[in-house]
Amino acid sequence: MSGESPASDEPSEALSRIEQGLAALGDRFREAFAACPTEPSLRAEHAKLLGKKGDLTAVLALLRDVPATERPRAGALVNGFKAEVEREFEARLAALASAALEADLNARPFDLTLPGRLALGRGHPHPVLAVRDELLAIFRDLGFQTAPGPEIELEENNFTKLAFPPDHPATDMQDSFWIKPGVLLRTHTSNVQVREMSALAERVRAGASPRLAVVSAGAVYRRDDDLTHSPMFHQIEGFLVDERVSMAELKGVLAAFAERLYGPGTPVRFRPSYFPFVEPGAEVDVGCVFCKPNDPSRAACRVCKATGWLEIAGCGMIHPEVFRHTGLDPERVTGFAFGMGIDRVAMLRYGIPNIRLLFENDPRFLAQF
Ligand code: PHE
């Protein structure tokens, strides 16, 4: 009871004024905090109260006049006040955050099906890859299975086992990118023949039948660079091995392929040619897809150079040497192989005059497909 309190407990005037000041500030800040509609305004009020030039600083100036005996009490009062402000501040922050969340959740529902605001447009396969997949699909329909093959290859698989004699001018003609002696960027996809036939030979030794029909597509590399040649380009390779495969089957497969790609009745012709890994070897032409036979405009056709034919592939019957090098018995199996450029098919398909356009990745070009 106050009556029983000793007189020394009566606060000094300075302390009373601090008490009153804190009480008044307490009423004000609670009201101000409650009235703040947003977190930034709440933080501003908080700073106004506790900041260096804030309202509390004015009250603290009175501490100077508080007698030493009352200092601990005054300090406790001030600290209690500050703690209360912080408690209230945190509580209001949390209340504002949950109110904001609540408002968000109750706002117009978020429609996930609306189109985005950034007009990014839809991507699509690169024309070369689109054509690659189309070619692979045709051969898959004809019964070929797909196989991968590495772009960095042993000389052995790229040249030697394909019966290129050492220092054969072909290795020079292809003017390859050597990584180190014995290792190069493959100059054609025919390396897959070697790899797949070697694996087949292993299965045959284990009793499997010597049948295999494979297609493989990917990048190949040669030191070539002009309007129609790029140092990196793409090929698709196919081959079929079995007992008693003949050149008639090779012609049948490629004729069926040409019809699927360029339409029924597309003429195909085979011209004798040389590749070390086939015998006989041929180059395959299809009737020019831009001018028709007996077309008066043929003389002016720049695509087929007025010949009426477009070269699309190299092919032939797999050389007995290749069978021997891969561990297959040339007395038992025969087979055919072919290889064609994918980029050229894409260029013909879309009327692209310069192969480099395909690899510069200019979106203004690629967006046209
Ligand atoms: N590998 C040959 C080339 O790149 C093409 C080819 C493949 C020829 C298969 C015959 C058989 O020119």
Structure description:
The protein has 369 residues and is of the alpha+beta class. It has 2 domains: 13-105, no CATH class; 127-366, Bira Bifunctional Protein, Domain 2 (BirA Bifunctional Protein, domain 2), CATH 3.30.930. Helix content is 41%, strand content 18%. The strands form 2 sheets. A 7-stranded mixed β-sheet has the order 1-5-6-10-9-8-7, with helices on both faces. Helix 1 (13-35) packs antiparallel against helix 2, helix 5 (127-141) packs across helix 11 (342-350) and helix 8 (191-205) packs across helix 10 (320-326). The chain is elongated.
Question: What secondary-structure arrangement, pairings included, does this model have?
Answer:
Blueprint: H1 13-35, H2 39-50, H3 55-60, H4 71-106, H5 127-141, E1 145-146, E2 152-154, H6 155-158, H7 169-173, E3 178-180, E4 183-185, H8 191-205, E5 212-221, E6 232-242, H9 247-262, E7 268-273, E8 278-287, E9 309-318, H10 320-326, E10 334-341, H11 342-350, H12 363-366
Parallel strand pairs: 1-5
Antiparallel strand pairs: 2-4, 3-4, 5-6, 6-10, 7-8, 8-9, 9-10
